[in-house]
Each structure stands twice: as C-alpha cells, then as structure tokens.
Design brief:
With 145 residues, the protein is mostly helical. The protein has 2 domains: 56 residues, Multidrug-efflux Transporter Regulator, Chain: A, Domain 2; 55 residues. The chain contains 6 helices and 2 strands. A hairpin with a 5-residue loop joins strand 1 and strand 2. Helix 1 crosses helix 3. The radius of gyration is 24 Å and the shape is elongated. The two termini are 40 Å apart.
Length: 145
C-alpha cells in the first residue's frame, strides 16, 4: 500500500502465518485492530509483523497464548518486568522438564510392551493389547496453564 501500511495478505506472508491466524490474534486482542481504508480493507502497521513473529517464537518455545499475552504486556517494561519474564520462563522450563519425565516413562513402558511382544513369537494373543486392557487408567493431573 502506498502509505506504508500493509495489507492482511502482506502481513500474513511476512509473518509466516495464514490470514485466519492473523484474524484470530486480532479477536484475542494480541494484535490491535488495524485501520481501514476507504474501501474497508485492513491496513496494518509494519510493527504488526514483528509482533506476530514474537507471538510465534514464544509459541514455538511452548508458551500458551495466555502466557504470550502476559509476555506482551511485560515486553515494553524494564527492570522489575525482567524478573517477571524470567519467572515465566522458569515456570515454562519446569513444565518442559515434567513433560520430558512423562515422555521418558511412556517410552520405557512402550519399549517394555514391544519387548514382551517380541518374546512371545507366534502366540495367539497380543501382549500389547492384553496389557492395554488389563488395568484401569489412573486419572491424569491437569496441566497448569
């Protein structure tokens, strides 16, 4: 666009997201509603691209959109806000460590099941299917978020 603003398609392309994602971020309030042209087309500032890239990088690191909203609120601050951002990052790191522990336990269980299957040869019953049906599944703890 001639005034330096960007169209919806331009912002989506430059930020590496689709148009639906861009509009979703607007509805969530992560991205301010853009000005409109006389014809009703959205006109975004170039800063919108940087903001969306920030959101996507934070999501790639495992932050939820609610956590990203908090990071965005802290983004422009200095001093004390840095400690709050560090606190969010440390909480995310603890969450990742917990997920890694669960994944290791899952891997060990599946590995054990696969080995038990291999040792049974041509047995008529599948030990993996039997194991999955033997015990009730304990309730899952809700993830904090």
């Amino acid at each position: 666009m001639k005034d330096g603003s960007l169209s919806t398609g331009d912002v989506a392309r430059e930020a590496g997201v689709n148009i639906q994602t861009l509009r979703y971020y607007e509805r969530r309030g992560l991205l301010l509603a853009p000005q409109r042209s006389e014809g009703g087309h959205r006109q975004y500032l170039a800063e919108s691209v940087r903001l969306i890239r920030f959101v996507k990088r934070a999501q790639d690191l495992g932050f939820t959109l609610s956590e990203v909203e908090e990071l965005l609120a802290l983004r422009s601050g200095r001093g004390q806000e840095c400690f709050r951002v560090q606190g969010l990052a440390l909480a995310k790191l603890a969450d990742v460590d917990m997920k890694i522990g669960r994944l290791r336990a899952i891997r060990k269980s599946i590995s054990t099941l696969v080995k038990s299957c291999a040792t049974r040869g041509d047995a008529p019953d599948c030990p993996i299917i039997e194991a999955l049906g033997d015990e009730p599944v304990p309730p899952r703890r809700r993830a904090r978020g």
